[in-house]
Design goal:
Number of strands: 18
Order of helices and strands: EEEHEEEHHHHEHEHEEHHEEEEEEEE
Strand order of the largest sheet: 6-7-8-3-9-10
Bound molecules: adenosine-5'-triphosphate
Structural class: alpha+beta
Strand content: 35-45%
CATH class of the largest domain: Alpha Beta
Number of domains: 2
Distance between the termini: 45 Å
Helix content: 10-25%
Protein backbone atom coordinates (compact mmCIF):
# COMPACT_ATOMS: atom_id res chain seq x y z
CA UNK A 1 0.00 0.00 0.00
CA UNK A 2 1.15 3.55 -0.58
CA UNK A 3 -0.06 7.12 -0.66
CA UNK A 4 -1.35 8.63 -3.89
CA UNK A 5 -0.26 12.09 -5.04
CA UNK A 6 -1.76 13.82 -8.06
CA UNK A 7 -0.05 17.10 -8.99
CA UNK A 8 -1.39 19.56 -11.58
CA UNK A 9 -2.86 16.79 -13.73
CA UNK A 10 -4.61 17.85 -16.94
CA UNK A 11 -6.21 15.70 -19.63
CA UNK A 12 -8.07 16.85 -22.74
CA UNK A 13 -9.87 14.85 -25.39
CA UNK A 14 -10.00 15.97 -29.01
CA UNK A 15 -8.36 19.02 -30.52
CA UNK A 16 -9.27 22.56 -31.57
CA UNK A 17 -12.60 24.15 -30.63
CA UNK A 18 -14.18 20.70 -30.06
CA UNK A 19 -11.60 19.76 -27.40
CA UNK A 20 -12.88 18.82 -23.93
CA UNK A 21 -10.64 19.49 -20.95
CA UNK A 22 -11.96 16.55 -18.90
CA UNK A 23 -9.47 16.98 -16.03
CA UNK A 24 -8.08 20.46 -15.45
CA UNK A 25 -5.03 21.06 -13.24
CA UNK A 26 -6.08 18.68 -10.46
CA UNK A 27 -3.89 18.40 -7.37
CA UNK A 28 -4.89 15.90 -4.68
CA UNK A 29 -3.10 13.88 -2.00
CA UNK A 30 -4.59 10.65 -0.63
CA UNK A 31 -2.58 9.64 2.46
CA UNK A 32 -1.45 6.05 2.90
CA UNK A 33 -4.26 3.83 4.22
CA UNK A 34 -6.96 6.49 3.85
CA UNK A 35 -10.20 6.61 1.88
CA UNK A 36 -11.08 9.53 -0.42
CA UNK A 37 -14.33 9.91 -2.33
CA UNK A 38 -14.39 12.01 -5.49
CA UNK A 39 -17.79 13.67 -5.77
CA UNK A 40 -19.13 15.55 -8.76
CA UNK A 41 -21.96 15.73 -11.27
CA UNK A 42 -22.06 13.64 -14.43
CA UNK A 43 -19.35 14.65 -16.92
CA UNK A 44 -17.15 16.52 -14.40
CA UNK A 45 -14.16 14.26 -15.07
CA UNK A 46 -14.30 11.68 -12.26
CA UNK A 47 -13.86 8.58 -14.40
CA UNK A 48 -11.14 10.25 -16.47
CA UNK A 49 -9.25 10.98 -13.24
CA UNK A 50 -9.52 7.31 -12.18
CA UNK A 51 -8.39 6.12 -15.60
CA UNK A 52 -5.35 8.42 -15.41
CA UNK A 53 -4.42 6.98 -12.00
CA UNK A 54 -4.95 3.41 -13.22
CA UNK A 55 -2.75 4.09 -16.25
CA UNK A 56 -5.41 3.56 -18.94
CA UNK A 57 -4.83 7.22 -19.92
CA UNK A 58 -1.68 9.37 -19.89
CA UNK A 59 -1.89 12.96 -18.55
CA UNK A 60 -1.18 15.88 -20.91
CA UNK A 61 0.46 17.69 -17.99
CA UNK A 62 1.20 17.10 -14.32
CA UNK A 63 2.30 13.98 -12.51
CA UNK A 64 0.94 11.02 -10.56
CA UNK A 65 2.89 9.32 -7.79
CA UNK A 66 2.36 6.22 -5.66
CA UNK A 67 4.38 6.76 -2.50
CA UNK A 68 7.82 7.95 -3.65
CA UNK A 69 7.42 6.47 -7.14
CA UNK A 70 6.26 8.62 -10.07
CA UNK A 71 4.05 6.50 -12.33
CA UNK A 72 3.21 9.24 -14.88
CA UNK A 73 4.49 12.74 -15.73
CA UNK A 74 7.67 14.52 -14.64
CA UNK A 75 9.41 13.21 -17.77
CA UNK A 76 9.05 9.62 -16.57
CA UNK A 77 7.93 6.98 -19.07
CA UNK A 78 4.38 6.14 -17.91
CA UNK A 79 4.27 2.91 -15.90
CA UNK A 80 1.77 0.57 -17.68
CA UNK A 81 -1.47 -0.30 -15.85
CA UNK A 82 -0.45 -3.90 -15.08
CA UNK A 83 2.74 -2.70 -13.37
CA UNK A 84 1.01 -0.09 -11.17
CA UNK A 85 -0.44 -2.60 -8.69
CA UNK A 86 -3.81 -0.90 -8.78
CA UNK A 87 -7.03 -2.67 -7.81
CA UNK A 88 -10.00 -1.54 -9.91
CA UNK A 89 -13.65 -2.06 -8.98
CA UNK A 90 -15.98 -0.97 -11.81
CA UNK A 91 -19.67 0.00 -11.63
CA UNK A 92 -20.84 -3.54 -12.04
CA UNK A 93 -18.44 -6.16 -10.73
CA UNK A 94 -17.36 -7.38 -14.17
CA UNK A 95 -16.73 -10.80 -12.65
CA UNK A 96 -15.81 -13.62 -15.00
CA UNK A 97 -19.15 -15.41 -15.45
CA UNK A 98 -17.60 -18.81 -16.24
CA UNK A 99 -15.44 -18.84 -13.10
CA UNK A 100 -16.71 -19.50 -9.59
CA UNK A 101 -16.30 -16.92 -6.83
CA UNK A 102 -13.05 -18.47 -5.52
CA UNK A 103 -11.48 -18.48 -8.99
CA UNK A 104 -12.61 -14.90 -9.55
CA UNK A 105 -10.95 -13.78 -6.32
CA UNK A 106 -7.79 -15.76 -7.04
CA UNK A 107 -7.56 -14.35 -10.57
CA UNK A 108 -5.23 -11.49 -9.66
CA UNK A 109 -2.82 -13.72 -7.70
CA UNK A 110 0.38 -15.00 -9.35
CA UNK A 111 -0.56 -18.10 -11.38
CA UNK A 112 1.56 -20.39 -9.18
CA UNK A 113 -0.28 -19.17 -6.07
CA UNK A 114 -3.81 -19.64 -7.45
CA UNK A 115 -4.08 -23.40 -6.93
CA UNK A 116 -1.80 -23.54 -3.89
CA UNK A 117 -2.75 -23.84 -0.25
CA UNK A 118 -1.57 -20.26 0.17
CA UNK A 119 -3.89 -19.13 -2.64
CA UNK A 120 -6.87 -20.96 -1.13
CA UNK A 121 -6.11 -19.40 2.26
CA UNK A 122 -5.97 -15.96 0.64
CA UNK A 123 -9.36 -16.51 -1.05
CA UNK A 124 -10.87 -17.61 2.30
CA UNK A 125 -9.35 -14.58 4.00
CA UNK A 126 -10.77 -12.24 1.33
CA UNK A 127 -14.27 -13.78 1.54
CA UNK A 128 -14.18 -13.28 5.30
CA UNK A 129 -12.93 -9.73 4.84
CA UNK A 130 -15.86 -8.75 2.62
CA UNK A 131 -18.26 -10.51 5.01
CA UNK A 132 -19.31 -13.36 2.72
CA UNK A 133 -19.57 -16.97 3.96
CA UNK A 134 -16.78 -19.36 2.93
CA UNK A 135 -19.18 -21.66 1.03
CA UNK A 136 -19.88 -18.86 -1.47
CA UNK A 137 -16.51 -19.77 -3.02
CA UNK A 138 -18.12 -22.43 -5.22
CA UNK A 139 -20.96 -20.25 -6.49
CA UNK A 140 -21.05 -18.69 -9.94
CA UNK A 141 -21.45 -14.89 -10.16
CA UNK A 142 -25.03 -15.27 -11.48
CA UNK A 143 -25.91 -17.06 -8.22
CA UNK A 144 -25.10 -13.91 -6.22
CA UNK A 145 -27.05 -10.70 -5.59
CA UNK A 146 -25.70 -7.45 -7.04
CA UNK A 147 -24.32 -6.42 -3.64
CA UNK A 148 -22.61 -9.78 -3.16
CA UNK A 149 -21.07 -9.51 -6.63
CA UNK A 150 -19.64 -6.09 -5.73
CA UNK A 151 -18.12 -7.55 -2.55
CA UNK A 152 -16.50 -10.31 -4.62
CA UNK A 153 -15.19 -7.66 -7.03
CA UNK A 154 -13.63 -5.84 -4.08
CA UNK A 155 -12.19 -9.11 -2.72
CA UNK A 156 -10.66 -9.79 -6.16
CA UNK A 157 -9.10 -6.31 -6.27
CA UNK A 158 -7.67 -6.63 -2.74
CA UNK A 159 -6.32 -10.20 -3.02
CA UNK A 160 -2.99 -9.24 -4.65
CA UNK A 161 -2.42 -6.46 -2.04
CA UNK A 162 -2.51 -3.53 -4.48
CA UNK A 163 -0.81 -0.18 -3.86
CA UNK A 164 -4.10 1.66 -4.37
CA UNK A 165 -7.71 0.57 -4.92
CA UNK A 166 -9.89 2.60 -7.31
CA UNK A 167 -13.67 2.20 -7.18
CA UNK A 168 -15.77 3.66 -10.01
CA UNK A 169 -19.33 4.19 -8.74
CA UNK A 170 -19.31 0.64 -7.37
CA UNK A 171 -22.78 0.81 -5.80
CA UNK A 172 -24.66 2.65 -8.55
CA UNK A 173 -26.42 -0.47 -9.88
CA UNK A 174 -27.65 -1.53 -6.41
CA UNK A 175 -31.01 -0.65 -4.90
CA UNK A 176 -31.12 1.69 -1.91
CA UNK A 177 -31.21 -0.94 0.86
CA UNK A 178 -28.34 -2.98 -0.61
CA UNK A 179 -26.28 0.14 -1.30
CA UNK A 180 -25.98 1.02 2.39
CA UNK A 181 -24.99 -2.44 3.61
CA UNK A 182 -22.60 -3.08 0.71
CA UNK A 183 -20.95 0.32 1.15
CA UNK A 184 -20.46 -0.30 4.87
CA UNK A 185 -18.94 -3.74 4.22
CA UNK A 186 -16.59 -2.25 1.62
CA UNK A 187 -15.52 0.55 3.94
CA UNK A 188 -14.82 -1.95 6.75
CA UNK A 189 -12.79 -4.18 4.41
CA UNK A 190 -10.70 -1.23 3.18
CA UNK A 191 -10.09 0.00 6.73
CA UNK A 192 -9.19 -3.50 8.01
CA UNK A 193 -6.51 -3.83 5.33
CA UNK A 194 -5.32 -0.22 5.71
CA UNK A 195 -5.88 0.25 1.99
CA UNK A 196 -5.37 3.54 0.17
CA UNK A 197 -8.60 3.96 -1.78
CA UNK A 198 -10.30 6.41 -4.11
CA UNK A 199 -14.00 6.03 -4.90
CA UNK A 200 -15.86 8.14 -7.43
CA UNK A 201 -19.53 8.86 -7.02
CA UNK A 202 -22.18 11.46 -7.80
CA UNK A 203 -24.08 10.49 -4.64
CA UNK A 204 -23.57 13.05 -1.87
CA UNK A 205 -24.64 10.75 0.96
CA UNK A 206 -22.23 8.06 -0.18
CA UNK A 207 -19.37 10.54 -0.56
CA UNK A 208 -19.88 12.06 2.88
CA UNK A 209 -20.61 8.89 4.85
CA UNK A 210 -17.80 6.68 3.58
CA UNK A 211 -14.68 8.79 3.33
CA UNK A 212 -11.90 10.33 5.36
CA UNK A 213 -11.64 13.00 2.67
CA UNK A 214 -14.11 14.23 0.06
CA UNK A 215 -12.76 15.75 -3.17
CA UNK A 216 -15.42 17.77 -5.01
CA UNK A 217 -15.00 18.18 -8.79
CA UNK A 218 -16.78 20.59 -11.10
CA UNK A 219 -16.05 21.08 -14.81
CA UNK A 220 -12.81 19.08 -14.63
CA UNK A 221 -11.45 21.09 -11.70
CA UNK A 222 -11.08 20.10 -8.08
CA UNK A 223 -13.00 22.77 -6.17
CA UNK A 224 -12.54 21.47 -2.61
CA UNK A 225 -10.88 18.57 -0.82
CA UNK A 226 -11.45 18.27 2.90
CA UNK A 227 -12.91 15.98 5.58
CA UNK A 228 -16.65 15.31 5.03
CA UNK A 229 -17.87 17.58 7.85
CA UNK A 230 -15.80 20.46 6.52
CA UNK A 231 -17.13 20.03 2.99
CA UNK A 232 -20.68 19.95 4.36
CA UNK A 233 -20.44 22.74 6.93
CA UNK A 234 -17.87 24.97 5.25
CA UNK A 235 -18.14 24.39 1.49
CA UNK A 236 -15.68 26.36 -0.61
CA UNK A 237 -18.47 28.20 -2.45
CA UNK A 238 -22.30 28.28 -2.58
CA UNK A 239 -22.39 25.89 -5.57
CA UNK A 240 -20.48 23.25 -3.59
CA UNK A 241 -22.89 23.92 -0.69
CA UNK A 242 -25.88 23.21 -2.91
CA UNK A 243 -24.23 20.16 -4.45
CA UNK A 244 -23.38 18.41 -1.17
CA UNK A 245 -26.80 18.90 0.42
CA UNK A 246 -29.74 21.27 0.59
CA UNK A 247 -28.83 24.85 1.47
CA UNK A 248 -30.70 28.06 2.18
CA UNK A 249 -28.63 30.88 0.67
CA UNK A 250 -29.70 34.34 1.88
CA UNK A 251 -28.25 37.82 1.37
CA UNK A 252 -26.96 39.45 4.57
CA UNK A 253 -24.67 42.10 5.98
CA UNK A 254 -21.71 40.98 8.10
CA UNK A 255 -19.90 42.81 10.87
CA UNK A 256 -17.01 40.61 11.96
CA UNK A 257 -18.35 37.51 13.77
CA UNK A 258 -22.05 38.16 13.12
CA UNK A 259 -24.36 38.94 10.24
CA UNK A 260 -27.97 40.00 9.86
CA UNK A 261 -30.43 38.63 7.32
CA UNK A 262 -34.18 37.99 7.02
CA UNK A 263 -33.81 35.24 9.65
CA UNK A 264 -32.36 37.75 12.16
CA UNK A 265 -28.83 37.77 13.53
CA UNK A 266 -26.60 34.75 12.86
CA UNK A 267 -23.13 33.81 14.11
CA UNK A 268 -20.52 33.29 11.38
CA UNK A 269 -18.02 30.44 11.18
CA UNK A 270 -15.47 32.85 9.69
CA UNK A 271 -15.47 36.62 10.25
CA UNK A 272 -16.59 38.80 7.34
CA UNK A 273 -17.53 42.41 6.66
CA UNK A 274 -20.11 44.01 4.38
CA UNK A 275 -22.58 42.36 1.99
CA UNK A 276 -22.42 38.55 2.07
CA UNK A 277 -24.29 35.47 0.88
CA UNK A 278 -25.10 33.33 3.93
CA UNK A 279 -25.24 29.54 3.58
CA UNK A 280 -27.57 27.94 6.13
CA UNK A 281 -28.26 24.20 6.20
CA UNK A 282 -32.00 23.38 6.55
CA UNK A 283 -31.33 21.46 9.79
CA UNK A 284 -29.88 24.68 11.25
CA UNK A 285 -33.28 26.34 10.92
CA UNK A 286 -35.15 25.71 14.16
CA UNK A 287 -38.92 25.62 13.68
CA UNK A 288 -40.70 26.82 16.81
CA UNK A 289 -44.24 25.47 16.81
CA UNK A 290 -45.35 26.95 20.12
CA UNK A 291 -43.51 30.19 20.95
CA UNK A 292 -43.45 33.45 19.03
CA UNK A 293 -39.66 33.59 19.16
CA UNK A 294 -37.90 34.18 15.87
CA UNK A 295 -39.07 35.26 12.44
CA UNK A 296 -42.69 34.51 11.59
CA UNK A 297 -43.72 32.50 8.56
CA UNK A 298 -46.35 30.13 7.24
CA UNK A 299 -45.75 26.48 6.40
CA UNK A 300 -46.39 25.83 2.72
CA UNK A 301 -45.42 22.19 2.39
CA UNK A 302 -44.19 19.30 4.56
CA UNK A 303 -42.32 16.31 3.10
CA UNK A 304 -42.35 13.54 5.69
CA UNK A 305 -39.49 10.99 5.59
CA UNK A 306 -40.12 9.18 8.89
CA UNK A 307 -36.82 9.90 10.64
CA UNK A 308 -37.15 13.59 9.74
CA UNK A 309 -39.10 15.93 7.53
CA UNK A 310 -38.50 18.90 5.25
CA UNK A 311 -40.66 21.91 6.01
CA UNK A 312 -41.01 24.63 3.38
CA UNK A 313 -41.87 27.93 5.06
CA UNK A 314 -42.66 31.32 3.52
CA UNK A 315 -41.65 34.20 5.77
CA UNK A 316 -44.06 37.12 6.16
CA UNK A 317 -41.80 39.18 3.86
CA UNK A 318 -42.18 36.54 1.12
CA UNK A 319 -38.76 34.81 1.46
CA UNK A 320 -38.93 31.00 1.07
CA UNK A 321 -36.91 29.06 3.70
CA UNK A 322 -36.44 25.30 3.89
CA UNK A 323 -36.13 23.74 7.36
CA UNK A 324 -35.43 20.15 8.30
CA UNK A 325 -36.66 18.82 11.61
CA UNK A 326 -37.22 15.53 13.45
CA UNK A 327 -40.28 13.68 12.20
CA UNK A 328 -41.67 13.05 15.70
CA UNK A 329 -43.70 16.24 15.94
CA UNK A 330 -44.02 18.48 12.93
CA UNK A 331 -46.29 21.23 11.62
CA UNK A 332 -48.82 20.96 8.79
CA UNK A 333 -49.29 23.15 5.73
CA UNK A 334 -50.96 26.43 6.73
CA UNK A 335 -49.53 26.52 10.30
CA UNK A 336 -47.87 29.71 11.48
CA UNK A 337 -44.38 29.03 12.89
CA UNK A 338 -41.34 31.01 14.01
CA UNK A 339 -37.85 30.31 12.68
CA UNK A 340 -34.44 30.82 14.30
CA UNK A 341 -30.98 29.88 13.06
CA UNK A 342 -28.82 27.66 15.26
CA UNK A 343 -25.09 26.93 14.94
CA UNK A 344 -22.47 28.65 12.82
CA UNK A 345 -23.21 30.03 9.38
CA UNK A 346 -20.78 30.27 6.47
CA UNK A 347 -20.61 33.65 4.71
CA UNK A 348 -19.46 34.13 1.12
CA UNK A 349 -18.71 37.22 -0.85
CA UNK A 350 -21.86 37.68 -2.96
CA UNK A 351 -21.68 36.75 -6.65
CA UNK A 352 -20.49 39.73 -8.69
CA UNK A 353 -18.64 41.38 -5.78
CA UNK A 354 -14.93 42.04 -6.25
N1 LIG B 1 -12.58 9.11 -24.67
C1 LIG B 1 -13.18 10.30 -24.67
N2 LIG B 1 -13.21 11.06 -25.78
C2 LIG B 1 -13.79 12.28 -25.78
N3 LIG B 1 -14.35 12.85 -24.69
C3 LIG B 1 -14.34 12.15 -23.55
C4 LIG B 1 -13.77 10.84 -23.47
N4 LIG B 1 -13.91 10.39 -22.20
C5 LIG B 1 -14.55 11.37 -21.53
N5 LIG B 1 -14.81 12.41 -22.33
C6 LIG B 1 -15.46 13.68 -21.93
O1 LIG B 1 -14.76 14.19 -20.80
C7 LIG B 1 -15.68 14.72 -19.85
C8 LIG B 1 -15.51 14.00 -18.51
O2 LIG B 1 -15.96 12.67 -18.65
P1 LIG B 1 -15.90 11.62 -17.44
O3 LIG B 1 -16.40 10.30 -17.96
O4 LIG B 1 -14.57 11.65 -16.84
O5 LIG B 1 -16.97 12.26 -16.44
P2 LIG B 1 -17.66 11.62 -15.14
O6 LIG B 1 -17.60 12.69 -14.11
O7 LIG B 1 -17.01 10.33 -14.80
O8 LIG B 1 -19.14 11.39 -15.63
P3 LIG B 1 -20.21 10.25 -15.22
O9 LIG B 1 -20.53 10.50 -13.77
O10 LIG B 1 -21.38 10.55 -16.12
O11 LIG B 1 -19.57 8.92 -15.46
C9 LIG B 1 -17.07 14.59 -20.45
O12 LIG B 1 -17.39 15.81 -21.08
C10 LIG B 1 -16.89 13.49 -21.47
O13 LIG B 1 -17.81 13.64 -22.54
Amino acid sequence: MSSLTITGVTKSFGTGPAATRAVDDVTLHVPHGSFTTVLGPSGCGKTTLLRLIAGFLVPDAGSIGFGDTTVAGDGVRPVPPQARHVGYVPQEGALFPHLDVAANIAFGLPSAARASRQGRDRVAEMLDLVELPAHFGVRRPDELSGGQQQRVALARSLAPQPAVVLLDEPFSSLDASLRGSTATAVRRALAATNTTALLVTHDQNEALSLADQVAVMRGGRLVQSAPPSQVYLSPSDPQVAEFVGRAVVLPGVATEARATCVLGEVVLSEAATGPVALMIRPEQVYVDLTHAEGVRGTVEEVSYYGHDCAVQVRLDDGTPVLARMAGVRHPAAGDVVHLRVTGLVRAYRPAGAL
